[in-house]
Design a protein that fits this description.
It is a single-pass membrane protein. This protein is mostly helical. The protein has one domain (about 35-180): Up-down Bundle (de novo design (two linked rop proteins)). The chain has helices at about 5-65, 70-85, 90-110, 115-120, 120-155, 160-165.
Length: about 190
Amino acid sequence: MLSLSTLALMSAGVLLVLFLWAIAIYNKLVRYRQQAAEGWSGIDVQLKRRANLIPNLVETVKGYASHEKSTLEAVTESRARCADAVRGPVPERGAAEGLLSQALVGLFAVVEDYPDLKADESFLGLQKSLSEIEDNIQMARRYYNGTVRILNIAVESFPDVLVARQFHFERADYFQIEDSQDRLVPGVSL
C-alpha cells in the first residue's frame, strides 16, 4: 500500500508532466501561428509589388490604346479595391485580388489588338516583371496555405485542441481563388 507522501509525490509528478505537455503544445501552436503570419507577409509583399507595377502598366497601355478606357478603368478600380481590402480578412483580400487578376487578363486581351504595344520594350519589361510577380504570388500562396493547413490541423486535433481553446487559438483562412471561372481547365484545340 502506498503512503500519503508517495501519492502526493506521484500527483505532483503527474501535474508537472501535464504542465510541461501543455507548454509544449502551446509553443507548437505559437510556432504554427507565426509561420502562417510569415506566409501571409510573403503574399502581402508580392501583392504590393504587383500593385506598384500596375500604374506603369496602365500608363504604357494608355499611350497606345487610349480608347480602351473601360478596360483601363477596370484595372484601376480593381487596384483601388485591393488597396481598400489590405487590412481586411483573408477571404475579402482574396476576392479583391481575384478581381484584379481578372482585370489584368482583360487588359492583356486588349493588348493583343495593338502590335506596336506588344513590341514596345517598356511594355515587354513590365509584362515580364508582372509575370515574375504572379509566379512569386503563386509560390507565396502555396507556402501560406500549407502553413495554414498545419495550424488548422493542430488547432482542431486532440489533444492540441484542449490547449488551443484555452488560449484562443483559432483556425486561419486559406487564401483561395474566389472566381470559379479561374478553376476551370482551359480548353486546348489542336
